[in-house]
Amino acid sequence: MPQYLVAIHHPDDYDPTVAEDDAMRRDITALNEEMKAAGIRIFVGGLQPAGRAVSVRVKPDGEELVTDGPYLETKEHMGGFWVLEAADMDEALAWGRKAAVACRAPVEVRPFH
Predict the structure, then answer these.
(1) One Pfam family name from the record (predicted)?
(2) Residues 34, 93, 55, CA angle at the centre, nearest 5°?
(3) Cβ–Cβ under 8 Å, residues 65 and 72
(4) Is residue 8 scored above 80 in pLDDT?
(5) Domains: count for the chain
(6) Calpha distance 88→106 (Å, rounded)
(7) Domain range spanning residue 17?
(8) Could you tell me which residues come within 8 angstroms of residue 101 by beta carbon, excluding any fewer than 6 positions away?
């Protein structure tokens, strides 16, 4: 069965201690339980803020450049994700819609190769 990434995106200044209330945590927990019961959830993970990232780039000469911070400089970064097994993109998108509602954040759904 195909696998899909369902990624939650947060703004750079996202602070879970402010943005996430008890109702949101209950909704996310309920969604996780629903995914487990449906047998589609492979893995789930929340990420630390993008400012905690360390990026590694390899220059053309082979030298490695390690820098603090995310690889991309954007206004939003992935805050967490699920890896799901779904029959097709339509089913994965249905779960992505539920994730967007539970997390109160934009969601990207993308198939794996």
Answers:
(1) YCII
(2) 95
(3) no
(4) yes
(5) 1
(6) 21
(7) 3-111
(8) 27
